[in-house]
Structure formats: structure tokens, C-alpha cells
Write a structure and sequence with these properties.
Elements (H helix, E strand, L loop, with lengths): L1 H29 L4 H8 L27 E3 L14 H14 L2 E4 L3 E4 L10 E3 L4 E4 L8 E4 L19 E3 L6 E5 L10 E3 L11 E8 L2 H8 L9 H5 L2 E13 L2 E4 L14 E4 L3 E2 L2 E3 L2 E3 L12 H5 L2 E6 L1 E7 L2 E3 L3 E6 L2 E6 L2 E3 L5 E6 L5 E3 L2 E2 L8 E3 L3 E6 L10 E2 L5 E6 L2 E2 L20 E8 L23 E6 L12 E3 L10 H10 L4 H8 L1
Parallel strand pairs: 1-2, 2-5, 3-6, 4-7, 5-15, 6-16, 7-17, 14-18, 15-18, 16-19, 17-20, 18-21, 19-22, 20-23, 21-24, 22-25, 23-26, 24-27, 26-28, 27-29, 29-31, 30-31, 31-32, 32-33
Antiparallel strand pairs: 8-13, 9-12, 10-11, 10-13, 11-12
Length: about 525
């Protein structure tokens, strides 16, 4: 009897031990690091380097500026919650802050009217650095800037030509410096140029390439067929414009603050320009509310596509938009020809329109923890030559998809993004196709619309959906499958991978730690 008891206890303990051993190994197996990330740690060429995206390359938090002079819009004549336009008063406050060289343009709580019937049909402009445009909260009871009327389009036949109501930009013009004299591979920090005259550390430069050499086109598109309708690519060619800050200069060698993200072959005409930019601009805690109330129809009219375009950053570096709301608008916000801008914790709500928030011709833009509740026709995305755009932990409905608006965007990371996947929502004019060039990466993407069988990124039957050789690592859906021949790499197409976030993992790998600002943002 005693022996049986001992045997029973031994059997139970053995079962428990075996189960525990199985569980530990199962968890360890389930959390095995993605093969491509393991390879990336040895060879940086297997994935684009996204860790330099965001304000100051993701190395520091966007600041809470409190040491600038305050320009309260109410001292310039703005009165919240009345029936009189505040547009002129807001422009006066911005102009005063620009003249001062820095400033906080401050809005107390309430609704401010920014484009009423008798207002001049022009935009509100800031052309300075160190300008903080700050409200008292973007939710109910906070600060609301209400746009009753649209601005007129530059050309009514071109539906994208309505200017933004709020434009933050710079004065001056770009200045040509010289040409690149030595080839460099992706990842290099050094750039040899014909001259560095007129440049100094801290300046920003633009690297430009425009060349229709068939070798260049084939390198990007591979065996994918080029349509005769893609006239820009055929006639003008590969178009690259990337923005970098200068870390140091030695003779004719420029050392950059971020690595080169496109192979530079000196046999092509790579030009270097000094970039005219403003920096340290912040938009905070404001609701931008339009008056778009119609049911949206894509390309029906300029009112649909761009009538209520709220905010545009152009020629802005090391800046941010955070905790803002965009309601009843055609286009929420565009970050254009800018670099190292962070868009954090913003919402798009109300009646659906054309676009949510996009990186347009910019470099190293981070769009993080943003929500599109309105289901814009094109949600968060990239366009017009953007390079290294990171869309991180953003959400949009199953009824829309990410934007990829042609004109040669490259290296776009959809990291822990949740929303629909559909071929009809990328965007872009036929002459500017394809929708994206090399470097679209989907990492732990959660598809929320119905499954697709043999989903294609380069379909023969769809003219407005052409993306060459994307990479998909970690994918959750209700059963979507892909045409694997069209992917440059695929791994774990039915479940998540480790690391959970490619952007976080690359940033931690570079900085040797997770920056505090990112840990805080994850919890917000």
C-alpha cells in the first residue's frame, strides 16, 4: 500500500514536471525571435533602418516648452465662443511670435472661428522656428479651431489644389552646393561631395537624384512590368529627395546624423542642396474642426478631395504634432518636404473625407499611436518620395486601408497597425504610378476586414495598386493568404512575431536601451 502511494505521488509529480517542461519550451518556442530580425543584427542590409524616424531621430522626447514668450491669441483680439471671426487675430499672434524669434501661440478653452463668410480666402501662415501652437485640450471643453468655409482651389479642375488653412513652413530658398563624387552604400554616414562651401555642422541638406536610366528603374521594380501610362517614371525617371542634418565636415566629406537610405552611385547625377527649413515647431492640444458634412465620393469634386485641408507642415525639421484632433475634414494633416517630425496621439473623427495623416515627400517621419475613427478614404500613409516613414501602433477601421499615394515613396513601415487591407485605397495618379517603390514592410499587421485569398501587391487586373516586393513579417487576419511570388520576404503569415515592434527593436538596438519617451508613449 505504501509503495503504491509513493508510486502515485511520483507519477503526479512526474506529470506536473513534464507539463511544466512542455509549457516552458512551448513559450520559448512561441517567443522565438523572427529570423529576419536575427539576420538584421548581423547584416543591416536585410531590412530598411527605421530607427532614425521621429523627433531628433527618436533619441529624445518631444519637449514640453515653457520658457518661450507667450502670445495669447485673446490679447490680439480673438474671443472664444462668440460669432466673430478670430482669423486675423490668430495671424497677428503668429506674426508677433515669428518676429520675436520664438513663442508660444496660446489658445484658452473655447471655440475660435477661423474661416467665416467675410474672411479673406487665404491661409494662416507661420514661417519661423521655435513656434509652439498650443491649445487647452483637443477633447470636449478644450480648444477648437472651427473652419466654416473652404479655401478656394488653385485650379478647380485639379481636385487636390485647395491649400491648407494652417501652414507652418520656412522662408528662403534651397541653395545648390555641388554634386556627390563617390559612390556610397545604404548605411554609410559619410558623403564625399565636390564642395562643402556654404555648409556647416547643424545645417540640413537635400540629396537629389532624377534619372530615367533603365538600369535604375529595373533595380527598383525588378521583373515587374512598367506601364506606358507611368509617364513620370519613364520620361523623368527615378526621383529621390532625402533630407539629412550635417553632423560634421572634414574637407569635402560630410558626416551625416543619420545613415544614407538609398544606394548612391556616383555615375548618376546626385546633387546636394542646402535645405531652407524651420525647426522646433510644435502643434499641441488643439481640435481642428472642419465643416465637411457631405457623404464623401472619391474624386467627385475639389470639395470632396481637399476642400477642408486643415494642417500642413512644409520644410520643417525636428518638430512635432501631438494630442490633436481633426474632425469633419477632407485632409487632416500633411507632413511635406520635412524631416524628423513626430505625429503622436492624434485622432481623426467625424464625417469621413479623403486623407488622414500622411508623410508627403519627407524623411524619417513617425506617425505613432494615432487613430482614424472617421474612416478616411486613405488612412495613414506615405507619398511623393517619402523615405523611412514609420506608422506605429496606429488604428483605422476595416472599411479603409493605409495610404501609398504614388510618386515614389520608399521604406514605409506599418508596425503593429490595425485596420483594413484593400487594393482600392492606396491612391495616386496614373502618370505617377506605381503606388510605392521598394521597402514597404508590414510587421505584426492586424487585418480587420474580411479575408482575401491569394492577395496580390502587383495584380494584373488592378491598375491603381502596384507595390513591388513588399515584406510581411507577422500577420493576423481571418485567413488571408498572399501571392508569395510577389513578396521579397515573408515570415509568420498567420501569427505575430518577436520582437513585437520592429521600430522599437531597431531603436533599442541602436541606442542600447529603450528610450524613456517611447516607454511612456506605449502606456498612454
Amino acid at each position: 500500500m505504501r509503495d503504491n502511494t509513493i508510486h502515485t505521488k511520483f507519477s503526479k509529480n512526474f506529470v506536473k514536471f513534464s507539463f511544466l517542461f512542455f509549457l516552458i519550451n512551448f513559450v520559448a518556442f512561441a517567443q522565438k525571435e523572427a529570423t529576419i530580425f536575427t539576420n538584421f543584427k548581423k547584416d543591416r542590409s536585410v531590412l530598411p533602418e527605421f530607427s532614425y524616424a521621429g523627433y531628433h531621430h527618436g533619441e529624445i522626447a518631444t519637449p514640453n516648452v515653457n520658457n518661450y514668450k507667450v502670445f495669447d491669441v485673446t490679447t490680439f483680439g480673438a474671443i472664444p465662443d462668440d460669432t466673430i471671426s478670430d482669423k486675423k487675430a490668430i495671424q497677428k499672434a503668429i506674426t508677433a511670435a515669428n518676429k520675436n524669434g520664438s513663442g508660444i501661440v496660446f489658445f484658452p478653452k473655447g471655440r475660435f472661428l477661423v474661416n467665416e463668410n467675410k474672411d479673406e480666402p487665404n491661409k494662416i501662415i507661420s514661417k519661423g522656428s521655435k513656434i509652439i501652437f498650443r491649445g487647452s485640450g483637443s477633447e470636449q471643453g478644450g480648444t477648437e479651431l472651427y473652419m466654416k468655409n473652404t479655401l478656394p482651389p488653385a485650379d478647380p479642375s485639379k481636385m487636390w489644389t485647395v491649400p491648407p488653412l494652417f501652414l507652418f513652413t520656412s522662408g528662403g530658398a534651397d541653395q545648390k552646393i555641388g554634386t556627390v563624387t563617390t559612390s556610397q552604400k545604404i548605411g554609410s554616414l559619410d558623403l564625399k561631395v565636390s564642395t562643402t562651401e556654404g555648409l556647416q555642422p547643424g545645417d540640413w541638406i537635400i540629396l537629389k537624384l532624377l534619372d530615367n536610366n533603365p538600369e535604375l528603374i529595373k533595380k527598383e521594380l525588378g521583373e515587374n512590368e512598367v506601364s506606358s501610362e507611368w509617364t513620370y517614371l519613364i520620361n523623368k525617371g527615378i526621383d529621390v529627395k532625402v533630407f539629412y542634418q550635417i553632423k560634421s565636415i572634414s574637407s569635402n566629406t560630410i558626416t551625416l546624423a543619420a545613415p544614407i537610405s538609398y544606394d548612391i552611385d556616383s555615375k548618376y547625377n546626385w546633387e546636394v542642396y542646402k535645405f531652407a527649413n524651420s525647426e522646433e515647431v510644435g502643434i499641441e492640444n488643439i481640435a481642428f474642426v472642419g465643416n465637411w458634412k457631405e457623404k464623401f465620393v472619391h474624386h467627385r469634386s475639389w470639395q470632396d478631395d481637399s476642400g477642408y485641408t486643415m494642417l500642413n507642415f512644409s520644410r520643417i525639421t525636428n518638430s512635432w504634432i501631438k494630442k490633436c484632433r481633426f474632425t469633419d475634414c477632407s485632409v487632416a494633416a500633411i507632413v511635406a518636404q520635412s524631416a524628423n517630425v513626430s505625429v503622436l496621439n492624434c485622432k481623426v473623427t467625424g464625417n469621413g473625407g479623403h486623407e488622414a495623416i500622411t508623410s508627403n515627400g519627407s524623411t524619417n517621419v513617425l506617425i505613432a499611436k494615432c487613430i482614424d475613427e472617421a474612416s478616411q478614404w486613405h488612412s495613414f500613409g506615405s507619398s511623393h518620395g517619402s523615405m523611412n516613414t514609420v506608422i506605429w501602433k496606429c488604428t483605422y477601421p476595416a472599411t479603409t486601408c493605409f495610404e501609398s499615394h504614388a510618386s515614389q515613396p520608399r521604406n514605409t513601415l506599418l508596425d503593429n497597425v490595425s485596420g483594413g487591407l484593400m487594393r482600392s485605397r492606396a491612391g495616386g495618379a496614373m502618370q505617377n504610378m506605381p503606388n510605392h517603390m521598394q521597402g514597404l514592410v508590414m510587421w505584426n499587421y492586424s487585418q480587420t476586414n474580411e479575408k482575401a485569398d491569394n492577395f496580390e501587391f502587383w495584380p494584373k487586373t488592378e491598375k491603381y495598386w502596384k507595390i513591388p516586393s513588399p515584406m510581411i513579417v507577422g500577420y493576423k487576419s481571418s485567413g488571408t493568404t498572399f501571392n508569395l511570388n510577389q513578396l521579397s520576404y515573408s515570415e509568420s503569415l498567420d501569427k505575430e512575431v518577436v520582437p513585437a515592434s520592429l521600430y522599437e527593436a531597431q531603436l533599442e538596438l541602436r541606442l542600447k536601451k529603450t528610450p524613456e519617451w517611447l516607454s511612456i508613449l506605449k502606456k498612454e
